[in-house]
Specification:
By secondary structure, the chain is mainly beta. Helices cover about 10% and strands about 40% of the residues. Keywords: Signal.
């Protein structure tokens, strides 16, 4: 059910613009809440993908591991519990998304699992023992007739020497490709040249976030305010260029020498640096959602030992949007966004950006509220 009165109020409050643009003569962009979806589901639901063929959104309740598919009216389609796939050894879901029109989950060690609409589970095995140690931004994408996904690690013994491990990670390809016919695997998407991870410091895991549209692939990573553009050529994803989101008043990440990675966890002051949180390759524009970080003086006003208080503070950190054209030229940045929304890189066929109303920030509700934001000028 759509509450249009609520949307009109929200749009008047949250329709935000900025005078900060690449060209003063350029049009000013708005990012406006156009509509909402009230999902008839009670739980800790988040939305992770949209399937243009079926018009369904993919949600996951991480508390109970329910996979929830819902439409534009918020009507839930058949829900699947990851527990039903226990015989298929799903242990920890690290990646979520649609693949070939089916809800697809990546397990931490056991490959890909696809759910049919009748609840049947199909497993796509990834050869040789492998593992992930962090959550992923997606489960898998098609690359030609093959499957591509974040490259997993295979030798846990290598992780014992953390310095050597991350020196290798910071220069290794980011994607693995599974040949759907032979079961063979190969690597593609080289680590982007000139990234911050080349400077000899340790910044922890990169949390690579990858999006694709019309043969163009986009990558951004946790420690830098850049995105990297790649092109799809046959069964390869080839680096093209890097686009720097120049935000002079953003706080930079603090690293430690890669030879002494353990020092990162011994830093006395938290480093809430500015970073890109999500990227949207829309039909006419590429939209970035980012933060500028927060100074320690602000953080010191909160009790970091109280998890809920710290979480509410982090959820309330200002978010901004930047608009690039299809050639990756900046059109406008520093467009302020409403607080309390969760952006996961999801957009629909109407180029509406999908954002979750954060119930931890606003308070619990009987239904899950999803907002649809539209870029306009």
């Amino acid at each position: 059910m759509k509450h249009l009165a609520l949307i009109i109020i929200l749009a008047s409050v949250f329709s935000c613009t900025s005078e900060n643009s690449a060209d003063n003569s350029a049009k000013s962009f708005n990012l406006e809440i156009q509509d909402s979806i009230q999902v008839d589901y009670l739980g800790n639901l988040n939305v992770f993908d949209f399937d243009p063929e079926s018009g369904l959104y993919l949600g996951l309740d991480s508390d109970v591991n329910d996979v929830v598919l819902f439409d534009e009216d918020g009507k839930s389609q058949p829900q699947f519990s990851v527990q039903t796939a226990k015989s298929n050894v799903i242990t920890w879901v690290v990646g979520k998304g649609f693949l070939d029109g089916k809800a697809t989950l990546m397990d931490v060690r056991n490959g890909l699992f696809q759910f049919d609409t009748d609840g049947e589970v199909n497993r796509i095995e990834i050869p040789r023992e492998h593992y992930y140690f962090n959550e992923l931004s997606f489960s898998a994408y098609k690359l030609g007739t093959n499957y591509s996904y974040i490259r997993p690690e295979r030798d846990e013994a290598e992780n014992k020497d953390q310095s050597a491990f991350y020196k290798r990670i910071y220069e290794s390809p980011l994607l693995e490709v599974l040949d759907s016919k032979t079961g063979d695997v190969s690597n593609t998407m080289e680590f982007p040249p000139g990234s911050i991870y080349e400077d000899g410091n340790y910044y922890g895991w990169m949390f690579p976030t990858i999006a694709k549209r019309d043969g163009k692939w986009y990558l951004h990573m946790r420690a830098e305010r850049k995105y990297h553009v790649y092109e799809e050529k046959e069964d390869e994803v080839i680096y093209v260029k890097t686009v720097d989101l120049e935000i002079p008043d953003a706080l930079d990440v603090v690293g430690v020498p890669i030879e002494t990675p353990w020092l990162l966890n011994r830093q006395l002051a938290p480093n809430l640096f500015g970073r890109i949180e999500s990227l949207y390759p829309l039909s006419d524009y590429t939209i970035l959602i980012y933060t500028k970080g927060e100074k320690n003086e602000t953080l010191n006003q909160y009790d970091t030992e109280k998890a809920e208080e710290l979480r509410n503070f982090i959820d309330g950190i200002p978010r901004f949007a930047a608009v690039f054209d299809r050639n990756d030229s900046l059109l406008q940045k520093d467009i302020e966004l409403p607080k309390g929304l969760v952006f996961n890189g999801v957009y629909n066929s109407e180029d509406e950006i999908i954002a979750l109303k954060n119930q931890n920030f606003f308070g619990a509700e009987d239904k899950t509220s999803i907002y649809k934001l539209k870029i306009s000028n």
